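Second opinion, please. Pick holes in both lines of this record:
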Amino acid sequence: MDTIHDKKLIIYGMGKLFRKYKQHILWDNVIACTDKTISTPELYDNNIPVIPLQEISKKYFDYIVIFVDEYFENIRVNLMGYYDIPEDKMISWRVFFNKSPRVSYEMVDFLKNYIKETRVKKLLDVGMRELPNFFICRQQLEKDTFVEIDGIGECGFPLYGNLYHHIYHSFNQVRSKYDMLFLDENFEEYLSWNDILEAAPKYIIWGVPYLFQFKKSHTELIQKSEEFWINKKYRLPDKIMYVFEKKSDVRLCDCKIFVVTHKKYNVKHDLMYQPICVGNQYQNKEYLNEHLGENIAYLNDRINECTALYWMWRNGESEYIGLNHYRRYFYNNRIKHSENYLSIETVSEIFESDYDIILPEAIVLSRTLLDNIAAGVGEELRNQGLEIVQHLIKRMHPDYMDAFEYAMNGHLLYMCNMFVTHRRILNQYCEWLFSFLIDGAELLDVSSCDSQGKRTMGYFAETLWTVWLLKQKLRIFELPIVSV
């Protein structure tokens, strides 16, 4: 086991938790403290620099120790995104003080959610060292997940026969097939790599403490597994959950998701995720740029990401196409973790299942869409924009007036202009949308407005997916989104 006490550390979070434990911190290795509330550099009691978050990148450090529990994932994602902090350099305060419990609420919640989202029916708990610290009876685990759980190893007390349907002492005794193997860090006492191949589960979850000293066999297992499984690492406050998902037989579709950005940010960038810079504030030579190719970039300060939507429509070539904001991504399911952003495998499976479009989970606002726009830009601009949009839709698409009035006076919204769909459907929507949106943006006089007021037509544009979809017979697959 490695130790962090001979490493260079930055402490993030100087709130209640930090104040509770600060007298136990080994300050010799701490090179700085930081918090989102710090705006100017200062010195802490023991002459440790307290720096704004943007100063982190100027420091050489081994780890950032996060003194927060409830928002650990949010903080981690923000530090990765806005400040380019490598994810393996962020650890929880629990690791710093060696206060990780044998099994934590976060780990149990992760396991239960994963079982639920993947519809696992049979699970083999290899080692039986962790779940018995949290459950006694199988009903506690089965009531939310409907999973049947068996164990292999020594459970310690006869009472835990209430948790497992069957308990095996070695893999040779196992006769069932399992959807998931749940491993702890010492699983090799009961299971070899060949045993895992023979079991051929769809999912493997392996909980490993931070700074765990990997054996050669562990590294080999991860490397060998890549032939059969997709490997992911979910970082929880006290453990890293290595998750192996069996590769799907579904043919991967040709899909590009354009990630719209107007400021520096650690944007996802790979074969499927294509960053595109919009507006005039930020450019990156490695990213696409809406000023190149057929575009309406001059309208960006008025219709927001819809200028990127226009660029995608006119310049994109992939069979399936999508739009994300720079700080918003779809998740694959309700496991809300940065390692679980929408993948090409999930996209392919959804469209293979005859769905037509992926959208964010519809939200129900407490006020109508019209009132929501007024809350953003004021009633006067809302009314001016409404008059223009109503006039244009009535002239260009009179058959959509009923859907427009229904949506605008309702509470249901597909937000953020986020989607993934077939190009044929995108073409239909964009032909409809831009037949009047460009005119509407140019007709509304926002010359004397602040930046928020200038976006009035952008507020209306965000509601128009909802309007258009009301008139379509499309099969929608909703997914949760993250807002970083």
